[in-house]
């Protein structure tokens, strides 16, 4: 049996592990990996005090330790790459194991069998590297640039994440982001060389780094250890390239020509009218980079540097063909990586990069059949980033890692016509006819803002004995957000025009009055500014014991303590939550003791911080006032070259609706003083085994339950019922839906505030719920005999009454402050299948080397559709101030509830991507790689998003857009690339 095991594991060393389902139970890292193992004699007796020397084949980095009394050793915190492991012991021949691969968070297990000096060498004596890590209970995928080069894959992190089981692409309006395990796309964490680069403003996105700058990726889909936190979705770790003892120069060029790109079909209304014109969309993209790397001092100091100019242009036509946008961005990227081997057991690494980018969006209007330029809006993103990391192996059993970094991101939107034009939205005839003057809804709400994260981490690992390895550490983030937001146009006013559904009775308005009888139209104005400087401090301590219970059973016992402190514009804490205890428990069993199969399980709790968007929106100097007027008509005015229907106003209807008066609100009146955190519990059980020398398979069941959430809720209905007066505006309090709330309340309407505790059932909100269940089945063939393949099927369901931090139903990016739970009536019928629910997902990818130089690749995905809704405006209990209900009004005035996700589903999405590459070795020192990728080869055009709003200006007023397709899957396009390496 052992002879067979040796043969299989030795093969595993000689091929690259293309796809990994799990990672070690030892404290996982987001930048490096480890080598561990045991040294035994030919009679399987442990060999203590043997000298283990590992050496990097790229940089000459060397570390030396000795085995313990059980013949075991562990060398943590190694940079990723290939190593040579040499074992020396008195009376034995040296044993050398070459090409031991260390991956992100990975643990290479090497067992060395020593032959006594002078003894005849047997063929079975050697080193074994386990094909399956039977100590692991985590779920992840590790993939390198070399693996990706074989596949047809867009050059972005989301495409890497989507290779992993249980991930799906989120709503396209949020950007190009993935949903992990049913969570919203705003609940993930992203790291580059240990630096957290996640957008902490609203969780959407991360720093934008060229794909060629990366060396390796790790995608954690569940069961990750106590070192990781602040995520209820997934974690993506990336490590950039670094210099070696060899000099390298090169350049990469990517071209996506519009001439080889198809357009999505046009979208039409049910009556045949054109809704969205996709036929005239154009997209051109050219990217290129140059890089250099090598030794500054051989075996000591190395550099890797990259510069990338880039230009992306896109033309699109919207709004029934009446508006056009042309966007362009051309800011360069630069990046520098330095590595210093200070001494044998001490290293220092430094990474700096800039992803500053300005996207200019030119807006045009169709005036008498020609496109008339209106304005330019500039979206400013990105910033300068750096991170430094020290790693020291202080003793054979104790290692320290210290990290400090800064991550910056601009979040400004400016327009060259913002002073000229207000946004006007006219709903009198159709759902949303926009007359913006500056021609784009992107222009109407502008911002000057930026975010900065300062991060410090201290991570330690102590091998106590051969049964216990203890990891512990401290994690600190100080995040600051600056924001000044305002509406465009004179007076900063945003106008809405409405029809009155029944002029004989009037329409109820959010300020508590009705339109006068006989009035047929009314206008709403909104003036809003918000801003300030805001800080959020997040701290964590963690400890994790990897306990080798027996030779075949490993337990991973982790505990994480988190603290979040969100501060308002005056620097005072407004949402502070301490003592969040997150257990992380994993177990793995090497069933047969041969390293070829394992049963594993994992239980964990994960907390999510309050997004700084909540600081900005809830605790800044916000002024937000709505006014309602009789609309006596409109007058056409030419503003910035566009004819705009400006309002002719009659009398104001009712009082001002003051949602915010411009001052920083008192903390105890806007936040539940007994606020609990948002958290999720996760349960995983799985099995993995080798089928043959090349094939492995695995099955895994996962359940995730959101057991606590934070959102803003109105309480004015409770105030009216309890104290007998009606507040002049909605009163929002940040709290836990369905739970008791302790808050300061004006009990008289005259400013007499009193701290009260409101029972959860008295407010009428349900508890936040989200449950994700899945079964993943995977078959993987590692690279051998010139081909590799991975096949994964996932059955899953995601249901509840909240998607999470953001809301796909209306593309709301207000993390933690979405429309959910704003009014009790909005949650009636909210239980059901959520937007990221995909019942079936199939992912197949692989590559085949036709010849030594010519490789073809494929990436195939099949995914069932997204649940659809039928949103209305009213309800049997009345009309909410705003928002979408799950009720629609019938012809007889009664209402029908259309619960979440019961209006059908979008189309199944089928996608086949193919690639072909040719590696031309011109000389020993010059390689040229030519590659062509064809995405969506069969040009499938599934409808991935539909208009879900059944009613428009009032209950029973049918919306002609309902059911129309608002987005199709990305149509076929071709990308060419050329890489030159010296």
From TrEMBL:
The protein's superkingdom reads Bacteria
The record's GO CC annotations read:
cell outer membrane
Localization, per the record, is: Cell outer membrane
Which Pfam families does UniProt cross-reference here? CarboxypepD_reg, OMP_b-brl_4, Plug
- Which keywords accompany this UniProt record? Cell outer membrane, Membrane, Receptor, Signal, Transmembrane, Transmembrane beta strand, Transport
Q: InterPro entries from the entry? A: Beta-barrel_TonB_sf, Carb-bd-like_fold, Oar-like_b-barrel, Plug_dom, Plug_dom_sf, TonB-dep_rcpt-like
> In what residue span(s) does the TonB-dependent transporter Oar-like beta-barrel domain sit?
324-568, 576-850
Which terms in the Gene Ontology molecular function aspect does this entry carry? carbohydrate binding; siderophore uptake transmembrane transporter activity
Signal sequence coordinates: 1-27
Q: Which GO terms describe its biological process?
A: siderophore transmembrane transport
Give the way it sits in the membrane.
Answer: Multi-pass membrane protein
Q: Which family does it belong to?
A: Belongs to the TonB-dependent receptor family.
Name used for this protein in its record: TonB-dependent receptor-like protein
Its lineage reads: Bacteria, Pseudomonadati, Pseudomonadota, Gammaproteobacteria, Alteromonadales
């Amino acid at each position: 049996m052992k002879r067979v095991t040796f043969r299989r594991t030795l093969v595993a060393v000689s091929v690259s592990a293309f796809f990994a389902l799990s990672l070690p139970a030892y404290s996982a890292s987001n930048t490096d990996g480890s080598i561990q193992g045991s040294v035994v004699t030919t009679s399987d007796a442990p060999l203590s005090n043997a000298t283990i020397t590992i050496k990097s084949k790229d940089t000459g980095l060397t570390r030396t330790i000795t085995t313990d009394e059980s013949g075991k050793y562990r060398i943590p915190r190694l940079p990723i790459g290939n190593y040579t492991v040499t074992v020396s012991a008195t009376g034995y021949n040296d044993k050398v194991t070459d090409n031991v691969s260390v991956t992100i968070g990975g643990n290479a297990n090497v067992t060395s069998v020593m032959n006594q000096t002078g003894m005849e060498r047997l063929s079975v004596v050697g080193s074994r590297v386990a094909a399956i890590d039977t100590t692991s209970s985590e779920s992840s995928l590790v993939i390198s640039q070399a693996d990706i080069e074989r596949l047809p894959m867009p050059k972005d992190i989301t495409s890497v994440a989507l290779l992993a089981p249980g991930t799906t692409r989120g709503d396209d309006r949020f950007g190009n982001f993935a949903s992990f395990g049913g969570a919203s796309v705003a609940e993930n964490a992203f790291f580059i060389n240990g630096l957290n680069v996640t957008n902490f403003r609203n969780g959407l996105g991360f720093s934008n780094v060229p794909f060629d700058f990366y060396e390796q990726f790790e995608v954690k889909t569940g069961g990750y250890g106590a070192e990781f936190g602040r995520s209820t979705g997934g974690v993506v770790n990336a490590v950039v390239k670094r210099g070696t003892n060899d000099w390298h120069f090169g350049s990469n060029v990517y071209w996506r020509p519009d001439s080889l790109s198809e357009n999505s079909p046009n979208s039409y209304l049910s009556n045949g009218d054109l809704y969205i014109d996709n036929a005239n969309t154009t997209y051109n993209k050219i990217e290129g980079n140059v890089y250099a790397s090598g030794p500054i001092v051989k075996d000591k100091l190395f550099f890797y540097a990259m510069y990338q100019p880039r230009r992306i242009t896109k033309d699109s036509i919207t709004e029934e063909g009446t508006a056009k946008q042309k966007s362009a961005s051309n800011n360069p990227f630069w990046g520098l990586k330095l590595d210093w081997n200070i001494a044998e057991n001490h290293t220092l690494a430094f990474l700096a990069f800039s992803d500053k980018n300005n996207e200019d969006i030119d807006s045009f209007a169709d005036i008498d059949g020609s496109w008339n330029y209106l304005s330019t809006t500039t979206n400013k993103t990105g910033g300068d980033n750096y991170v430094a990391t020290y790693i020291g192996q202080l003793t054979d059993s104790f290692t320290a890692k210290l990290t400090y970094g800064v991550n910056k991101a601009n979040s400004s939107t400016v327009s060259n016509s913002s002073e000229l034009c207000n946004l006007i939205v006219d709903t009198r005839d159709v759902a949303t006819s926009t007359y913006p003057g500056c021609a784009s809804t992107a222009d109407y709400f502008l911002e000057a803002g930026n975010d900065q994260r300062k991060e410090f981490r201290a991570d330690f690992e102590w091998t106590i004995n051969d049964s216990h390895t203890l990891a512990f550490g401290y994690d600190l983030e100080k995040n600051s957000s600056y924001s000044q937001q305002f509406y465009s146009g004179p007076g900063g006013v945003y106008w809405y025009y409405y029809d009155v559904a029944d002029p004989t009775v009037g329409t109820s308005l959010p300020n508590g009055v009705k339109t006068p009888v006989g009035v047929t139209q009314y206008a709403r104005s909104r003036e809003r500014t918000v801003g300030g400087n805001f800080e959020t401090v997040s701290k964590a301590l963690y400890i994790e014991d990897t306990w080798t219970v027996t030779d075949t059973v490993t337990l991973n016992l982790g505990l994480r303590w988190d603290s979040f402190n969100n501060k308002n514009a005056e620097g005072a804490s407004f949402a502070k939550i301490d003592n969040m205890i997150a257990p992380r428990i994993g177990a793995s069993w090497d069933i047969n003791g041969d390293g070829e199969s394992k049963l594993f399980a994992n239980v964990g709790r994960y907390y999510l911080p309050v997004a700084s968007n909540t600081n900005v929106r809830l605790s800044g100097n916000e002024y937000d006032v709505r006014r309602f007027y009789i609309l006596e008509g409109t007058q056409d005015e030419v503003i910035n070259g566009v004819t705009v229907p400006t309002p002719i106003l009659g009398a104001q209807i009712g009082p001002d609706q003051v949602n915010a008066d411009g001052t920083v609100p008192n903390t105890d009146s806007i936040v539940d003083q007994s606020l609990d955190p948002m958290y999720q519990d996760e349960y995983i059980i799985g099995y993995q085994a080798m089928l043959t020398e090349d094939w492995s398979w695995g099955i895994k069941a996962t359940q995730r339950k959101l057991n606590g959430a934070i959102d803003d809720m109105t309480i004015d209905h409770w105030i009216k019922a309890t104290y007998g007066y009606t507040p002049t505006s909605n009163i929002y309090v940040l709290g836990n839906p369905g739970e008791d709330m302790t808050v300061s309340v004006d009990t008289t309407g005259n400013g007499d505030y009193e701290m009260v505790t409101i029972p959860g059932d008295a407010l009428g909100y349900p508890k936040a719920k989200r449950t994700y269940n899945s079964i993943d089945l995977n078959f993987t063939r590692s690279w051998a005999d010139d081909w590799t393949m991975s096949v994964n099927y996932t059955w899953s369901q995601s249901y509840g009454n909240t998607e999470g931090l953001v809301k796909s139903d209306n593309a709301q990016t207000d993390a933690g402050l979405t429309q959910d739970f704003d009014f009790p009536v909005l949650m009636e019928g909210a239980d059901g299948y959520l937007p990221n629910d995909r019942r079936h997902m199939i992912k197949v990818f692989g590559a085949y080397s036709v010849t030594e130089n010519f490789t073809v690749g494929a990436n195939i995905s099949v995914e069932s559709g997204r649940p659809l809704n039928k949103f209305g405006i009213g309800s049997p209990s009345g009309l909410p101030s705003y928002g979408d209900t799950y009720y629609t009004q019938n012809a007889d005035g009664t209402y029908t509830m259309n619960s979440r996700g019961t209006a059908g589903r979008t189309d199944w999405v089928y996608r086949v991507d193919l690639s072909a590459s040719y590696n031309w070795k011109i000389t020993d020192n010059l390689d040229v790689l030519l590659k062509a990728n064809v995405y969506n080869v069969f040009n499938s055009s599934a409808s991935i998003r539909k208009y879900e709003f059944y009613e428009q200006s009032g209950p029973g007023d049918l919306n002609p857009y309902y059911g129309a397709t608002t987005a199709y899957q990305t149509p076929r396009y071709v990308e060419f690339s050329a890489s030159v390496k010296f």
